[in-house]
C-alpha cells in the first residue's frame, strides 16, 4: 500500500516523513524522526508516557495517527530545553529527585508544562488530577508533585 | 486501511456508502485507536471527521438549546460557560472520561456511538432529552440519544449513516441535572455504575424528571418508573427511597471483576439518590 507523505512542525522545525495509515504519531516520532524521548508504555492511552502537545493540546501520541498531524505543531520533550539550558521543570525534577527509572518522566514533563501554561499557580490537588493520566511505577508521585509546584513557583517569579 | 479526510458531511457519507468493506469514523480516536491496536476492529476505510467544517462549533439553537459539533473535545465542552450553566450534568459526565490527555481528543458523539454500556456522557445526555442529527444514503433523520446504542459496542446507525451534530434541548427555567459514577479509584477507570437525573421544579415540587442508569444493563437505560417516583414530590426522604427502589428494580447488572450484581444494585440506589439531590439543588439555583 502506498505510504502517506506527512509534513508537519516538530519542536519548531518543519519535518517530513512517510507513514503507513495505521502508524501512530508515537511510531513516527520514535521510528521515523528519531525522537526517542517520547516513550511507549502501553500504547492504549492509559500511561501517559507518550504525552506530547498537538497544536498546544496535551494528547497521547499513541492515540493519534501519524497522518493526522499534517500541517500541525507538535511539541515533544526534546523541545523543552533551550540549547544546553534545561527548562525549569527539568531542573526541578533533578533537584527534587522526581524520577528513578525515568521512563515516565518525558510524558510528565510535557504534561506539567501544559498545566503551567494554562494554570501558572495550580493547587496540589489540581496538579494531581491533571497528571492522573501519567503513571509512574517508581516514585510514588510525591516528589513529582513537589517538583511541578516548585517549578511553577519559580516560573511565576515567586522565589 | 485507507484514511480519508472529507471536508463536508456529504463527502463523508459518500465515502462511507461507497466503501466495500468495513468502515469506521475517526473523531477523537480514543476508542478507535485502542481497538485498532488490539485488533478488535480492522477497518478497510477510516474516515477522519475532524476536517469537516463546523465540527468544532458549539452554537445556540433558535429555541434556546445547544448544537454541539462532532469534533468538540471534552476539554472544549468544559470551557464553554453557557453549556456548563445550562447542562452541568452533561458536561460533568463527559469530563469524567479519561485523563487530561484523553479530554483533549475525546468527543460526546464518539462516546455515544462506541456503544459502551458504561459510557460516562450518555446517561446525562439521555436525561437531558438530547438527540443526534444523522445523515445517510436515505437522507436526514434525528434519533433520541437513548435509542442510539444497540448493545455493547454496537449502535443503530445503518451502513453509510453518520451523526452530524448533537442537539440539547432548551434548559428552560427551574431545571437542573447531575451525573455521578462509582469507580474504585478517584480517576481513570470504567464506571461500575453511573446515574443521571434531570428534573424541573415548580416551587419545591418536581414537575418533570428523567432518570438514566449506566453500566447496569447491556445499554444505558432510561428508567421511567424511577422518574415517576419523584414527579409530584419535594424530594423528601421517602421519595428518595422510592426513587432508589424503582431504579434498583429496573437495573439488570452482571457480576464481573469490577463488582458483583448485588454490589451494583446497592450502588444504583446510593448514586441515584445523590444525583437527584444535586439536580434538585441545581434546579433551585443553590449550587452549580
Ligand atoms: C485511557 C482512556 C480512558 C478512558 N476513560 C473513559 C471513561 O472514563 N469513561 C468513558 O465513558 N470512556 C472512556 N474512554 C473511552 C473513550 O475515550 C470515550 O468513549 C470517548 O468519548 C470516545 O470519543 P472519540 O471522539 O475518541 O471516539 P472515536 O474513537 O473517534 O470513535 C468512537 C466510535 O464512534 C464512532 N463515531 C465517532 N464519531 C461518529 C459520528 N459523527 N458518526 C457516527 N459514528 C461516529 C466511530 O466510528 C467509533 O466506532 C477512555 C479511553 C481511554 C483511551
Ligand atoms: S503509550 Fe500512550 S498512553 Fe501509554
Ligand atoms: S520514574 Fe520510573 S516510572 Fe516514573
Please describe what this structure looks like.
- The complex is a heterodimer of chains A (about 160) and B (about 290).
- Chain A contains 5 helices and 5 strands, in the order E-E-H-E-E-E-H-H-H-H.
- With about 160 residues, chain A is an alpha+beta fold.
- A 5-stranded mixed β-sheet of chain A has the order 2-1-5-3-4, sandwiched between helices.
- The model of chain A has no long low-confidence stretch (mean pLDDT about 95).
- Chain B is of the alpha+beta class and about 290 residues long.
- Chain B has a domain of about 110 residues: CO dehydrogenase flavoprotein, C-terminal domain (Enolase-like, domain 1).
- Helices cover about 35% and strands about 25% of the residues of chain B.
- In chain B, helix 5 packs antiparallel against helix 8, helix 9 runs antiparallel to helix 10 and helix 10 crosses helix 11.
- Chain B is globular, with a radius of gyration of 19 Å.
- The mean pLDDT of chain B is about 95.
- Flavin-adenine dinucleotide (FAD) binds next to strand 2, helix 2, helix 7 and strand 10 of chain B.
Short description:
Chain A has 159 residues and is α+β, with helices and mostly antiparallel strands.
pLDDT under 50 segments of chain A (min length 5)?
A: none
Helicity level of chain A, as a percent range? 25-40%
Instruction: Give the overall shape of chain A, derived from the CA principal axes.
Output: globular
Tally of individual domains of chain A: 2
Could you outline the blueprint of secondary structure elements for this entry?
The complex is a heterodimer of chains A (159) and B (288).
Chain A: E1 4-10, E2 13-19, H1 25-32, E3 51-54, E4 57-60, E5 73-75, H2 88-95, H3 105-118, H4 124-130, H5 142-156
Parallel strand pairs in A: 1-5
Antiparallel strand pairs in A: 1-2, 3-4, 3-5
Helix pairs in contact in A: 2-5
Chain B: E1 2-4, H1 9-18, E2 23-26, H2 32-38, E3 45-48, E4 58-60, E5 66-68, H3 74-78, H4 81-86, H5 88-95, H6 100-103, H7 108-113, H8 122-128, E6 131-136, E7 139-144, E8 149-151, E9 154-155, E10 162-168, E11 175-182, E12 193-202, E13 205-214, E14 221-222, H9 224-230, H10 237-250, H11 261-283
Bound molecules: flavin-adenine dinucleotide and FE2/S2 (inorganic) cluster (2 copies).
Amino acid at each position: 500500500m502506498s505510504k502517506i507523505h506527512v509534513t508537519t512542525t516538530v519542536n519548531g522545525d518543519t519535518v517530513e516523513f512517510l507513514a503507513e495509515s495505521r502508524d501512530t504519531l508515537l511510531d513516527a516520532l520514535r521510528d521515523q524522526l528519531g525522537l526517542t524521548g517520547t516513550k511507549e508504555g502501553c500504547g492504549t492511552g492509559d500511561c501517559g508516557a507518550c504525552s506530547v502537545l498537538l497544536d498546544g493540546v496535551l494528547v497521547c501520541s499513541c492515540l493519534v495517527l501519524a497522518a493526522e498531524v499534517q500541517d500541525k505543531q507538535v511539541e515533544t520533550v526534546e523541545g523543552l530545553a533551550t540549547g544546553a539550558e534545561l527548562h525549569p521543570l527539568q531542573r526541578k525534577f533533578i533537584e527534587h529527585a522526581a524520577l528513578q527509572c525515568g521512563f515516565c518522566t518525558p510524558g510528565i514533563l510535557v504534561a506539567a508544562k501544559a498545566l503551567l501554561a494554562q494554570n501558572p499557580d495550580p493547587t496540589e490537588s489540581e496538579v494531581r488530577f491533571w497528571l492522573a493520566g501519567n503513571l509512574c511505577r517508581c516514585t510514588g508521585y510525591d516528589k513529582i508533585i513537589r517538583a511541578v509546584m516548585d517549578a511553577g513557583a519559580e516560573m511565576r517569579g515567586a522565589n | 486501511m485507507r484514511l480519508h479526510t472529507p471536508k463536508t458531511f456529504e463527502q463523508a457519507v459518500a465515502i462511507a456508502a461507497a466503501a466495500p468493506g468495513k468502515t469506521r469514523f475517526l473523531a477523537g480516536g480514543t476508542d478507535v485507536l485502542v481497538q485498532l491496536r488490539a485488533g478488535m476492529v480492522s477497518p478497510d476505510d477510516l474516515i477522519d471527521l475532524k476536517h469537516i467544517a463546523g465540527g468544532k462549533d458549539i452554537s445556540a439553537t433558535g429555541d434556546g438549546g445547544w448544537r454541539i459539533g462532532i469534533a468538540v473535545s471534552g476539554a472544549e465542552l468544559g470551557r464553554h460557560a453557557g453549556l456548563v450553566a445550562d447542562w452541568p450534568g452533561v458536561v460533568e459526565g463527559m469530563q469524567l472520561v479519561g485523563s487530561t490527555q484523553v479530554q483533549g481528543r475525546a468527543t460526546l458523539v464518539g462516546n455515544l456511538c462506541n456503544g459502551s454500556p458504561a459510557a460516562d456522557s450518555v446517561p446525562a445526555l439521555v436525561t437531558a432529552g438530547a438527540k443526534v442529527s444523522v445523515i445517510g444514503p436515505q437522507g436526514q433523520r434525528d434519533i433520541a440519544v437513548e435509542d442510539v446504542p444497540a448493545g455493547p459496542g454496537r449502535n443503530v446507525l445503518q451502513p453509510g449513516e453518520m451523526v452530524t451534530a448533537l442537539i440539547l434541548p432548551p434548559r428552560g427555567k427551574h431545571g437542573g441535572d447531575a451525573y455521578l459514577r462509582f469507580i474504585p479509584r478517584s480517576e481513570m477507570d470504567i464506571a461500575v455504575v453511573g446515574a443521571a437525573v434531570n428534573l424541573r421544579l415548580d416551587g419545591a415540587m418536581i414537575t418533570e424528571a428523567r432518570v438514566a442508569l449506566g453500566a447496569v444493563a447491556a445499554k444505558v437505560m432510561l428508567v421511567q418508573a424511577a422518574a415517576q417516583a419523584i414527579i409530584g414530590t419535594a424530594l423528601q426522604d421517602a421519595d428518595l427511597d422510592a426513587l432508589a427502589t424503582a431504579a434498583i428494580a429496573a437495573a439488570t447488572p452482571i457480576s464481573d471483576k469490577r463488582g458483583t450484581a448485588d454490589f451494583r444494585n446497592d450502588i444504583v440506589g446510593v448514586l441515584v439518590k445523590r444525583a437527584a439531590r444535586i439536580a434538585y439543588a441545581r434546579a433551585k439555583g443553590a449550587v452549580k
